[in-house]
Amino acid sequence: MDANNDSSAPWTSADITTILPTVTPTIFPRIGYSIISFLMFVTTLLTVFNNVLVIVVMVRNSLLQPMNVLILSLAVSDLMIGLCGSLVVTITNYRGYFFIGRAACVFQGFAVNYFGLVSLCTLTLLAYERYHVVCKPRAGLKLSMRRSMMGLLFVWVFCLFWAITPLFGWSGYGPEGVQTSCSLAWEERSWSNYSYLLLYTLLCFLVPVAIIIYCYFKVLTSMNKLNRSVELQGGRSSLQENEHAVTMVLCMIVAFFVCWLPYTVLSVVVVADPELYIHPLIATMPMYFAKTSPVYNPIIYFLSNKQFRDATLEVLSCGKYIPHGPASANISMQPLNNRESRLTLTRTIHSKILPL
Q1: pLDDT tens digits for 39-83?
Q2: Distances (CA, A) of 174 to 7, 27, 106, 160, 345
Q3: CA distance 138 to 134
Q4: Are strands 173-176 and 181-184 parallel, antiparallel or unpaired?
Q5: What are phi and psi of 346, to 5 degrees?
Q6: CA 223 to CA 219: how far, in whole Å?
Q7: Residue 289, SS3?
């Protein structure tokens, strides 16, 4: 059905309340909506499958250790992005417009913003805890379930503040781009919206990026120092494991930027040049990039760990898969001031780039 000829076409600017910013109806080829709908359908399937698999494996195999609780939180928030975001966008693009009403538009914008921020901040918390485990082993050994839960509580409450304030007039939620999805009111030209976008960009993107880059840089630096120390004591070099850790860190950072950088650039551009015209398709793309993060987060942060990968294959094969080779070891509880403990730590520390 063509959106342009449908009598129940999306609401006009006169129909939109103050919580939904004024938008200009757009014209987009029907084939374009169909392509976006198909891509989002694939994204939804992969998002739901990957994250449900992570949750099932962790709960079924009792892998809920303090660090792994963060991975579980990431999987839950990513799953909600798929259900509240990608699934809805698949349906609305199939119809060619956001046909399910203003309340649903506000809810979708809120849900995607909220769970997207939770996912982003959980990745930041993961980077910080890995930094403590690898760079400050004695402090890392103090990581407890209580500390993990307190960190997650802060993340979820912090993100709730930034997601709920647009509902009370500081910025807002409304249709974006090609009018088949809803998000923050990027097109609204007001100082209230500009102030929100500036602080949102600073505290919800730039600060997390700085923390992630700093933490993983220090992790890699510590690993290299430990390798050199072990080699000087006659131990085996862990060059292959080190290269794998570097690759994983680069994947984490690149994936983070691919997902969230377009979102941030759009907000900065809108504030820097309020009169700039942004093509509807370009205005829509940042949210679609953000919706892809739940697809590869489980792969990078979960399935790339041998222990979790073996547990996943066992679940998928209904218990027929038999793991080969030793499982990932935990960090040694012995003091780090002797040669034996250093040799043990260097063989296991690379797995700390991945979940514990």
Answers
A1: 999 999 999 999 998 888 888 877 678 778 888 899 999 999 999
A2: 21, 17, 6, 18, 51
A3: 9
A4: antiparallel
A5: -70, -25
A6: 6
A7: helix
- Residues 302-319, mean pLDDT to the nearest whole number: 76
Q: In this prediction, what percent of the chain has a pLDDT beyond 90?
A: 19
What residue spans of 273-305 are helical by DSSP H? 280-291, 293-298
- H helix or E strand, kind and range, residue 181: strand 181-184
Question: Distance between CA 69 and CA 86 in Å, rounded?
Answer: 25
CA torsion, ordered 278, 280, 282, 288, to nearest 10 deg: 140
Name the residue type at position 136: K
Q: Residue 181 pairs with which residues in a beta bridge?
A: 176
8 A C-beta contact, residue 244 and residue 350: yes
Kindly report, residue by residue over 210-259, the tens digit of the pLDDT. Answer: 998 898 888 888 877 877 776 666 655 555 666 676 777 778 778 878 88
Q: How confident is the model at residue 343 (pLDDT cuts 50, 70, 90)?
A: very low
Residue 341 burial by CB count (10 A; 0-12/13-18/19+): exposed, middle or buried? middle
Q: What's the DSSP call for residue 354?
A: S
Q: Tokens representing 29?
A: 């080829």
The answer to whether 182 touches 106, Cβ cutoff 8 Å, is yes
Domain architecture of the chain: domains with CATH: 29-353 (1.20.1070.10)
